[in-house]
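Good morning,

Both structures are done.
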Amino acid sequence: MNPLYEQMETSVFERMSLAAARHNAVNLGQGFPDFGWPDEILEAAAKAVTEGSNQYAPSRGLPVLREAVAAHYNRHHGLDLKAEHVCVTSGATEALAAAILAALSPGDEAIIFTPAYDAYAPLIRRAGASVREVALQPPEWKIDRDRLAAAVGPQTRAIIFNNPHNPTGRLFDADELESVASVAREHDLVVISDEVWEHILLDGQRFAPLASLPDMADRVIKCGSAGKIFSLTGWKIGWTVAAPEMATLAARAHQFLTFASAPNLQAAVAFGLNDGDAWIAPMRERFARARDRMTEGLRSAGYVVLDSAASYFLCVDLEASGIGLDDESFARLAVEQAGVAVVPLSAFAEQNPPTHMIRLCFAKRDETVEAGVAALAKARELAR
């Protein structure tokens, strides 16, 4: 069998969620919300099941959804996109897979910023390419242009860029975006820009897509997610957005991954994108309140919590919190003895991973956050 998969461990998210279920623990590990979705979109999906098509959708996606995605970004970012720029996929991870398979060939190299979403490295290797890591350093997690440029080699073909950033909750600033763009332009690289958290912005932050920077539209493949936009992660509706030539290549890879996604969910997402944007500000406010509730509770319990500007996530520095255990040991103690599942940050890097931090998902109801904070207070006492 393929050694890539024979030697691969189960995803840390699956592992911690299974542990949470086994120990009846509060699950602050896997990144899904338990509130926040618009009921109107659920009703649109249900109606599409009984009144719409339940057969194969076009592989590139329902035209109504491709047009809605293009219109959404034109409205929010002043772009000039059309349906031909868009390919609908079965979630953003499948979008990443299609983009990576389209962009990389055996023997190529791709750069990732670590800590990184754990799908990047296996997908790069599945394309026959090699991974080059550029480590971001806590607590700022800033991109250093010189370190990025130094990682580019003769076989480097792509940069995998994630903004806003999972797992750190960082929103990269204009200078950091230009650092990535300038290196890509200088070395003629494709950038696969994972922008799934683009609407989960807190504290009045503003997001700029990498493709909007000068001379980047023709070298960026953007990956987006309806699951993140509408807090419906189980729907697994995502997309790639790119210049038509690159969009077509990503679509060719997509057609032999999942071919097409559920038509009723595509129709409902199109409805949601076209129905206006009144849901965005209230969603951001609810997530900001949840983040603040968790942060305040953890700091009161003696934890050192790093700032989070976007996404569902915040990071806790165990070492600075007076805890001598590494992140894996603490995560095991927390779920087995204190009743709360967390994610060790070392799972997000392979070379010199940080072993003194954990990631928590704050996109939870008040009672879930409070139960998780209480369990983490217990875990801190057990670990000291």
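Second structure follows.
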Amino acid sequence: MNFFDKLFQRKPVVDLDELNRNLAPKLEKIRRPAVSLCKTVEKRNSKFGGQPTANSSVFEWPRDNGKPLAFLGQLDLAEIAKVYQYDWLGDRGSLLFFYDIVEMPWGFDPKDKGKWRVIFQAEPNNTISYPEDLTTESRLNEIYVSPKLVQILPNFDDPAVEALCLSDDEVDAYIDWDDGVSSSHHQVGGYPKPVQGNHMELESQLASNGIYLGGVEGYESDAAKKLESGARDWKLLFQFDSDDDLGVMWGDCGRIYFWVQEQKAKQNDFESCWLVLQCG
């Protein structure tokens, strides 16, 4: 290194082609399949907004404190399974997603439970009308979606990336590559695309078990230490992005994430799903 390089501490020039060649095989180890939900004009059972399809003989519109929740959308599990079959998610029936889009709970408070619902329908057969007291604000535009299999990478701060022991240049290349190629914002399964922090499995585990997470005290409590191993049981069920076409924005251009415990999902039990909202 010459005198001026030492004086100004110039970084050596990086051969980007070689960097990417060396990085590619490492990334293959951590890619994960996800089902991206792509908008389509073709009428399908999977959709965002509109009115839900359910078994009208048993379905009751979910409410919180007497107010009806907004219907976010429905996912046909057979349509999902056609492109990718998760071993923790069934291939029959449908899932209906509801949320309080007025209060927009974040999910860090155990008291938020009930402000969202995920309802499994084994045999949906009728279009359900909106409750008369459901506000216009809570009626999302109807958009059909088509599932598509994609391969995605975790966020750069995910433990799977840390385990690769990448160099600083490789981390920079990883972030650029991931942002430009593998992002999938409306999706089922796979790695989440976090906005604020990559610890939603732990947040779901702790908050769903009664620990308030509005400060670091909750995460550092003795009760949290006893529960934290259960974070690995949580799977990303549905990631829902802010979307102008639907007329929804979660906080400041954020996303909401529905999480489910693997064993409960295998039994079509989604009553204990937890929701996390993140925004910038």
